[in-house]
Amino acid sequence: MTPKKTKPRYRYRNWEISGHIVMTVLAVLAIAPFLLLIISSFTDEKVAISNGYSFFPEKFSLAAYRYILTQWQMIGRAYGVTIFITVVGTLAGVTMAGMLGYTLSKKDLPGRSLLLFIVVFVMFFNGGLTATYIIYTRIFHVKNTIFGLLLPNLLMNGYYVMMFRNYFENHVPKELIESAKIDGASESTTFFRIVVPVSMPMMVTIGMIVGLMYWNDWINGLYYLDLKSKLQPIQVILNNINENIRFLQNQDLATSSKLGYVELPSATVRMAIAVVGVLPLLCAFPFIQKWFVRGITEGALKG
Amino acid sequence: MNAKVELNEVRIIREKRRNFKQYIPLYLMALPGLTYLLINNYLPLYGMQIAFRKLDYAKGVFRGDFVGLQNFRFLFATDYAWIMIRNTVLYNLLFILVGTVFGLMAAILFNEIRDRAAKKTYQSFLLVPYVISWVIVSYLAFAFLSNDTGFINNSILKPLGIEPINFYQEPKYWPFILLFFNIWKGIGYSILMYTARLITISNELYEAAEIDSATKWQQIRYITIPMLKPVLIMMITLALGRIFYSDFGLFYQLPMNSGALYDVTTTIDVYTFRALMKLGDITMSSAAGVFQSVVGFILLLLANALVRKFSKDDAIF
User: Which domain holds residue A38?
Assistant: First the structure.
């Protein structure tokens, strides 16, 4: 805000100041837990155990990260899986939803209303967790395969398809498609060479949302991977650490020792692994925020 | 005459066929997406039948004897049926009520800020909780709530001379904790949804109100809130339509699946998961899942019909 523009007679200065105060408080509340997490991960283990996690620990230490470095194989592999499912899932999901949305944007398509119904019906009605699980495990045998992370629920849904359809209908000039057809381009060439480039804002918006879903997903890993699976993405590793601690809390030591794969980390290592898990997203967020805001306001996250 | 009609019909059929042929590439492009919907969404509908069958591994999950609604009777005979329905519905109502009030107040105040750069900064901070996973949130919450090493017990209660609280074993605190984190994660989203509508309000309205020397309160009461009404109605109705669904991550991750808290943290989604994956009780799990799908579907249809009445654009279909 340039001071020149501020009219001295602005009557609602008090409202604006309250707005700043409330927003500052909310922003601090939003960020403080992350600070505590990060500071805890740099805290000396003994200090953390005797004084608890603190914003101002008495002694800092890199021991937690040194331990994590010794586990680089596990963390590295987990990130490899996370990046793989994010990239593959996003590309495949956006392509499939985009193509389906393109077909549905053709108003003269025979059977269009039936196809629309097929897409929209399952936005409202689903078979439930258990039926989905049974189908994926008994018919498609995705348990402990990469498909168990890629396929269930995340790849695409009716919301993305409808957003694409609306965008193609309203923002892609008909003349552009017509002229491509006159030049003899096939439907798929028209789509990939003409429609996709002019629809990049929507492609990126939905791509960001699909990508974020894959990046953050721990539920598919919970359902479709055993605790000893080597395919665990980083979020699933974080979840399994919690599961191990749960076992200990429930005094079920006999079972927990069988889990073996993820060692029970100490107070600070636990926080350090969470930092490693969340840091890339925190760093990337300022750059993807614009697309994300667009996705929210345009309704991709309605459901 | 007759021959002419026939000829015409043949022509039309031929044309249709040619037309259809011309659309084949488009159908092919729709195929991958449709195949995925078939696998991910339509086959599970077929899978719902296990809720109506007796589980029989010898015959296969889909071949057990048909038992009608017996599985549902068993489900509703358990204590958890009532608990999970109560929790799901009440938490949703609580979140809708408190979330809407907080979101609305925050959005109105946010809208008073004229400094665009500051607004953008606030928005960035407030959206961070929205984009991280519930697993990460459970770690953040643990840093505060842990019995031995938590910030609250060590840095707040201890200096005040208050006995440490074993949060993960004490059900009475959890409605507040769950509410807090639900709003903490969602407030950035609410502000965004409301301000998207607020910026469409013409400044002239406010200027006219100022000339009539309306106070800010009056402006909010008579301009801002009426303008927000459509988006408010839409968000509340859609949330009511999803009142049978809960955020699995919130109720499973945040309490760390602690057994002592099951009474206040078990929602339908959590029960379905636990029955299937921890207890291996496919029958109860699928009965709960089907119950949720069917009731949820009816409620969502009702909600959508309501939204259509108020504003057609905001309806899902």
Answer: 13-65
